[in-house]
Amino acid sequence: MGKTSIALEYAHRHLAEVGVGWQLPAEDPAVLAASFGELAAQLGVRELLDTADPVAAVHGALRAYPAEWMLVFDNAPSRSSVASFLPPAGRGRVLITSRDQIWPPGQSLDVPMLDRKVAAEFLVNRTGDPDRKAALELADELGGLPLALEQAAAYIQATVGTLAGYLVAFRERRDELLARGEPTGYDETVATTWSLALQQLGASSPGAAGLLRLLACLAPDPVPLTLLLADEQLADQLAPSVTDAIGQLLGDPVAVGDAAAALRRYSLLTAAGNGMVSVHRLVQHVTLAQEPANAVGQWRQAAGALVEAAIPADPDLPEGWPVFALLLPHARAVLDLISSGMWRIALYSGHSGNPTAARDLFQLIADAHLQSDTGGPEHRDALAARNELAYWTGQAGELVEALDQFAELLPIFERLLGPEHPGTLTARNNLAARTGEAGDAAGARDQFAELVSIRERVLGPEHPSTLITRNNLASWSGEAGDAAGARDQFAELLSIRERVLGPEHPSTLTTRNNLASWSGQAGDAAGARDQFAELLSIFERLLGPEHPDTLITRGNLASWSGQLGDAAGARDQFAELLSIFERLLGPEHPSTLITRGNLASWSGQAGDAAGARDQFAELLPIFERLLGPEHPGTLTTRNNLASWSGQAGDAAGARDQFAELLPIFERVLGPEHPDTLTTRGNLAYWTGEAGEVADAGD
Question: What pLDDT, in 10s, does the model give residues 51-74?
Answer without folding.
Answer: 567 888 889 889 999 999 999 998
